[in-house]
Amino acid sequence: MATLTVFEAGYCTHLACMALRGAGFSVCRFPARAWLIETAHGRWLWDTGYASHFLDHTRHGVFAWYRRVTPVYFNAEEALARQLHDRGLQAADLSAIILSHFHGDHIAGLRDLQGAPIWLSGAGWNATRSLRSVAALRKGFMPGLIPPDFEASIIAIETFEQVALPAELAPFIHAYAAPGSDGELLIVELPGHAAGHLGAFIATEQGWVMLASDAAWSPAAYKNLTGPSRLAHSIMDDTARYYDTLRKLHELDQRGSVKIYLTHEGAL
User: Fold this and answer.
1) CB atoms within 10 A of CB 47
2) What residue ranges define each of the domains in the chain, with the CATH number in brackets?
3) pLDDT, tens digit, for every residue of 209-245?
4) What is the per-residue pLDDT for 268?
5) Buried b / exposed e across 161-187, counting CB within 10 Å, b at 16+?
6) Cβ 221 vs Cβ 22: under 8 Å
7) Which of the four pLDDT bands, split at 50, 70 and 90, describes residue 267?
């Protein structure tokens, strides 16, 4: 069975009511998490969190607005590459880095982890890769965070075998089986938040676990079917599909057999 190790690589702050409608005006901390997924036959890194490259690319110009709207706190000791190094791991030891989507807080560490294959949504990358300036900012994408050899390292999850999910994972019905994972890592599409937004089901000794990425910013969102502020809708890829995904998480949670982890789950 697979094991999961969670890392925090920096955090941002925002008003609680932006992440969860009606939550009030207190300022909350939202950690940028990444996960190391390990099986008997491979290691996969789910997202990369913040990195110094994010700070470098948001000091000036149009992307400085990113940090003004969402203040970011990060120090070098939190870099994911450094945390992995402390565990005796480097990029070459990874079967792949899996990107849930292309927002800056999920891809900022890529330049520190060059050499590993990158798995991603091909459709999502095709919709994102050419964005620049204000158009990129509106989608939370910072082209400067992408390493120069990125295109040569990517593999679209759409090329993987598509498999039916067990009934206990309903209402999710199909997934892409991660090559080399013996069915212990199954990648699912969670559309709405961003182009090509992905999640994953992971089989552990304790049962199935779901990495739901940014499909919600608080467990209360899917437990109570409460979305974020309407202002947050402006940065979503597809609001209708976001709420459809949220309803699916709600139904999965109601079954009580799958633990759901969110990337930025804070104090809400």
Assistant:
1) 28
2) 3-261 (3.60.15.10)
3) 999 999 999 999 999 999 999 999 988 999 999 999 9
4) 72
5) eeeebeeebeebeebbbbbebeebbbb
6) no
7) confident
Q: What is the pTM of this model?
A: 0.98
Place of tokens 């598509």: 162
Closest CA to 228 of 71, 47, 11, 28: 28
Q: Which of 33, 83, 70, 45 is nearest to 264 (CA)?
A: 33
Find out whether 238 and 245 touch, Cβ atoms under 8 Å: no
Q: What is the CA radius of gyration of the chain?
A: 17
Q: Could you give the CA distance from residue 119 to residue 183 in angstroms, rounded to a whole number?
A: 16
